[in-house]
Amino acid sequence: MKLATRLIHAGEPEQPFAGAVSMPIFQSSTFLASGSTDYHDLKYIRLNNTPNHQVLHAKLAALENAEAALVTASGMAAITTTLLALLKSGDHFLAQDCLYGGTLDFINQDLPGLGIECDLIDGQQPETWKSCLRPNTRAIYVETITNPLMQVIDLEKVVSFARQNGLVSIVDNTFASPINFRPAEIGFDISLHSCTKYLNGHSDIVAGAVIGRRKLVESVRHKLNHFGASLDPHACFLLHRGLKTLAVRMAHQNRAALVLARFLADHPMVAGVNYPGLAQDPYHAMASKLLDGFSGMLSFEINGDRQKAIALMEALEIPFCAPSLGGVESLVTRPATTSHAGMTPDQRAAAGISDQLIRVSVGLEDPEDLVDDYRQALEKIG
Ligand code: PLP
User: Fold this and answer.
1) What separation in angstroms does the CA of 187 have from each of 14, 90, 168, 184, 323?
2) Domain range enclosing 138
3) How far is the centre of ligand 1, averaged over its atoms, from the C-alpha of 141 (Å)?
């Protein structure tokens, strides 16, 4: 079945509960157990095995053509639990140098105290990765599309490098979503999501997912059962409902982001646009090879200073100024004060993140209305 059909039907109970076409919420912490069941057969919300969890696990695994999946209480719960399940004190791993800020903070601030070391690698220079390997290197961690510059590195090379060197390959696939990229299909061992973003798509829950090889997902589940970062059944229900419309939402967002990116790229007040869907973008060839769509995320630099960028964001009438992404409403942020505020100005400059860089999450509004809104806002501040 095609992805859009799988989103609706994969993983659903063979016999709908009480004939319900839509999966009901099982708002029960515990479930009846017969005397003969062992601990692993008990159903309990923290053990991530209620009917609401099971349906989501089967659907998410089917979506990415992977063996197994697990939902978690947030994207960060998926990331931290995975790293702590797959790495132990004395281990070392490699990670791309421009990861989501929360992931980087966890790597820099929490893992060293637990005896887990990391070397940050330049994703665009695969020839340098080998020199960072140590006898205790266990994993390599990257993102499909990086934030906020929307870079797409050679992900096939990441997988082959991991295989050659006996590493577990892990990718945060949040920005692409399974509609645009399914990591297991090119051989990634684990794909992670902040389901808070595209997978739920309505900016009304936090949730995460771990998708990949069954043995690895099982060990993450074991750790998650101990950490207790389980997704609540009501959030499971909302995620399940949101997932059903992912294909139509993503198709619109892919298309609308391209329309907006083209408009911005041609505007004299815009210094540059980062969107791998643009033919002139340096990542266009790689993204076209790997992805089925370029997502609804883009960033651009305004001609002018920080004040000009702030004025533009204030002049926009449709998008909300708010962090996060992937919802039905367009959002704009200035990474220098949100996702990358933790870096020093020098670090941001070295990473190519200027004060006048604006990141856009394109929502489900009509792209013509968005273009009109950006046009009027640019005229207003011009
Ligand atoms: N990964 C990426 C790429 C993100 O953008 C985010 C949040 O912005 C996360 C992970 C963390 O997800 P959550 O906020 O659901 O914990």
Assistant:
1) 30, 26, 11, 5, 32
2) 3-243
3) 15
